[in-house]
Design goal:
single chain; 5-stranded parallel beta sheet; globular; 9 strands; Rossmann fold; binds guanosine-5'-monophosphate; alpha/beta; about 210 residues; disordered N terminus
Length: about 210
Amino acid sequence: MTSDADITAGKNDKTAESKTGRLFIISAPSGAGKTTLCHALMKHFDGMLYSISYTTREPRKGEKNGVDYHFISKEYFEKQIAEDKWAEWAKVHGNYYGTLAVFLDKAIASGNDILLDIDVEGTKQIIGRYPDSISIFIMPPSLDILRFRMESRGADSREGIERRMINAEREIFQRSIYKHVIINDNLLKAVAELTGIVEMYRKGGRQ
Ligand code: 5GP
């Protein structure tokens, strides 16, 4: 994974006459397998930067600050809103999540492709700001399977799961704003589809 410092230093730049980097946005309801798919993508493509989001939610067990998220206070987040520092931000499940504009602009200028794992509201803002972004929506095979996966993960309370299910239905309803939709009914197949889409753009196959 490439760090902020690497971007500043220009490490991983494609070529001297480098073009600007592309933004790949991945969204999915919780439990649709997005984290696994994002990890697979990062492993597959050299020089792909992962955009580490900022959030006001509490870290989950095993999550590291600066790796999974930048965990910040509500006050700090709201200050950045007032100062117009976010390229996009949204309130998801009661917490703020956002992507810093300065990070994205620097990463794009460095020529690296960037992977954003954000929700539908954030996607709309990124598409408005960077219309060439490549957006991909990951669908769970069904809502029942989604609920089952969330329950088996054991990370959320009953109330939390209900809130995530309502949000999932709302997000699935809006999937048509995405350029690509992948159904994750089989992980290997979904990874192959996802890497195939990213490969196509990286080879200049589709603009
Ligand atoms: P979680 O708390 O489960 O890690 O993430 C909850 C939701 O927030 C997921 O749908 C995830 O894609 C979304 N999310 C994570 N980072 C960002 C961000 O920077 N901006 C927006 N808009 N959503 C985000």
